[in-house]
Amino acid sequence: MEKHYTIAQLADETGIPHQTIRRYIDKxxxxxxxxxxxxxxxxxxESIKTLEKIRLLYGDRLTVEEVDNALSEQGIPVTIAVPTxxxxxxxxxxGAVMTLVGEQLETMNERLKKxxxxxxxxxTEIEELKTLLKxxxxxxxxLVTTTMRNHLETQKQxxxxxxxxxxxxxxxxx
Length: 174
Prior knowledge:
Elements: E1 4-6, H1 7-14, H2 18-28, E2 34-37, E3 40-44, H3 48-59, H4 64-73, E4 79-83, E5 89-93, H5 94-165
Antiparallel strand pairs: 1-3, 2-3, 4-5
Helix pairs in contact: 3-4
């Protein structure tokens, strides 16, 4: 397990005043491996060299942004807090986070492509159903029209037969 130091222990070991270490943690904590234990901040042993580099960079009269840039250029990883599935915060290297995010994006893209494919199939099926429905409506209209014509023809025949019945008996020989 990695060894961690309190700020007071680091101040003794590095000769950097504890107020300065606190300021470095506040300004550049994303470059340091830290963890909280109760109300105390503990710094990983591997971050001691980074603290000393920060001290040297400030000794060269660099600004906060310039120190951050210099640390990044020297390959010192940026650590950020990331929520876990159980909603706890965990510190991870930014590169690892970016890899994880990339994998998640790729998974989401694959799901999206599957959904688009499924939607395309549904769209095709809907168009086929529309075509079928249109054909059924046209067939229905034809049947209704034919039925109405037949009905009118039947009505005419009934009317003609009725007019024949209304003729007087002597008109039938005409």
